[in-house]
């Protein structure tokens, strides 16, 4: 237990450090908005609304948060500006909890499910292949036998990048020639994984959104072909989004959720941006659990998402 707590504390320290740009941006704006004021009035709420929207929390989610603070102020009769940070933390944590998702164990798979198949989707440039490499590393570190499938066959660079990650992590990558049928690659990957008693299979897919119908057809075909080997796969469709793009990440989430059944989200590049509020908005708006967050370039810099720890890092724990 002490060993687990040590690493949990260490991860929390990394989270605090990597989210510092967002925290400093939000805190600085809130501090200016409440300077010289003693209570949370309409003017403070208007300023707070603008701060949250410009921090890429999103309009709909921001309005929900403001309504909750207004209700709290009405119920308590008086809310001073010193309490605002604590209230924000509590209400946003409550909003994330209402997403009906449980925090998952670190890089674990359901008992009795083998192999656990993850199909990864997302546009080019969001860190999709890198996220797959980091996932493979973390699963392997957790004692799992991992297979990767290079089904993004339209980009030679994507296949090459995945092969490099496979060599770096020490896991097999199943690939075919350029332009091969992605479904065929997925089939070969799952076949090899089953034959070799693998625990986890991660399939990289093409990151193009120019035609939702075309994308939908390709992803559906990959799913159907894999079902010939195991009827209940994929177990997870993981959408990777670049948190530093703010509202563009919202749009990508909207397009991909229309094109396929996304069951989990990974939000990357949160360490170098002040747009970390996007995690709150996307989680709230799409009702899809954020499962992983990317906090840097290193293999250890992919963390499982912990709602309360994330909110504490952004808004201060007990501050």
What does this structure look like?
The protein has helices at 2-18, 20-34, 42-54, 59-76, 84-97, 128-141, 156-169, 182-195, 212-226, 247-259, 278-286, 307-315; strands spanning 116-121, 146-150, 173-174, 200-204, 236-242, 264-268, 290-294, 302-304. The chain has 319 residues and is an alpha/beta fold. The protein has an eight-stranded mixed β-sheet with strand order 3-2-4-1-5-6-7-8, with helices on both faces. Helix 7 links the parallel strand 2 (146-150) and strand 3. The relative contact order is 0.16. Mean pLDDT is 86; it is low at 1-7.
Set down the secondary structure blueprint.
Elements lengths: L1 H17 L1 H15 L7 H13 L4 H18 L7 H14 L18 E6 L6 H14 L4 E5 L5 H14 L3 E2 L7 H14 L4 E5 L7 H15 L9 E7 L4 H13 L4 E5 L9 H9 L3 E5 L7 E3 L2 H9 L4
Parallel strand pairs: 1-4, 1-5, 2-3, 2-4, 5-6, 6-7
Antiparallel strand pairs: 7-8
Helix pairs in contact: 2-3, 3-4, 4-5, 4-11, 5-12, 6-7, 8-9, 9-10, 10-11
Shape: elongated
* Count of helical stretches: 12
Describe the largest sheet.
8 strands, mixed
Approximate helicity band: 40-55%
Strand content: 5-15%
Structural class: alpha/beta
Q: In whole angstroms, how far apart are the ends?
A: 27 Å
- Radius of gyration using CA atoms only: 21 Å
The run of helices and strands is HHHHHEHEHEHEHEHEHEEH
Q: How many β-strand stretches?
A: 8
**Unreliable stretches:** 1-7
Tell me, rounded to a whole number, the average pLDDT.
86
What order do the strands of the largest sheet run in, or round the barrel if closed?
A: 3-2-4-1-5-6-7-8
């Amino acid at each position: 237990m002490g060993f687990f707590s040590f690493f949990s504390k260490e991860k929390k320290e990394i989270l605090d450090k990597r989210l510092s740009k967002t925290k400093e941006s939000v805190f600085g704006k809130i501090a200016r908005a409440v300077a010289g004021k003693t209570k949370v009035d309409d003017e403070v709420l208007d300023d707070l609304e603008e701060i949250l929207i410009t921090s890429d929390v999103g309009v709909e989610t921001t309005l929900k948060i403001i309504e909750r603070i207004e209700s709290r102020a009405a119920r308590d009769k008086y809310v001073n500006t010193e309490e605002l940070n604590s209230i924000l933390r509590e209400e946003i944590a409550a909003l994330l909890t209402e997403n009906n998702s449980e925090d998952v164990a670190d890089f674990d798979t359901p008992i009795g499910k083998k192999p656990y198949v993850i199909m990864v989707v997302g546009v080019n440039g969001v860190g999709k292949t890198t996220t797959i490499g980091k996932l493979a590393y973390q699963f392997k570190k957790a004692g799992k036998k991992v297979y990767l499938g290079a089904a993004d066959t339209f980009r030679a660079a994507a296949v090459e990048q995945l092969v490099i990650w496979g060599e770096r992590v020490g896991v097999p990558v199943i690939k075919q020639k350029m332009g091969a049928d992605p479904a065929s690659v997925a089939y070969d990957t799952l076949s090899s994984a089953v034959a070799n008693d693998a625990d986890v299979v991660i399939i990289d897919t093409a990151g193009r959104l120019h035609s939702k119908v075309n994308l939908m057809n390709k992803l559906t075909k990959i799913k159907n072909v894999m079902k010939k080997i195991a009827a209940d796969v994929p177990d997870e469709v993981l959408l990777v989004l670049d948190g530093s793009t703010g509202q563009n990440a919202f749009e990508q989430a909207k397009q991909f959720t229309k094109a396929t059944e996304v069951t989990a989200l990974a939000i990357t590049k949160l360490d170098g941006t002040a747009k970390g509020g996007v995690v709150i908005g996307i989680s709230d708006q799409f009702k899809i659990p954020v499962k992983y967050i990317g906090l840097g370039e290193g293999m250890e810099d992919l963390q499982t998402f912990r709602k309360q720890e994330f909110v504490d890092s952004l808004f201060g724990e007990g501050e």
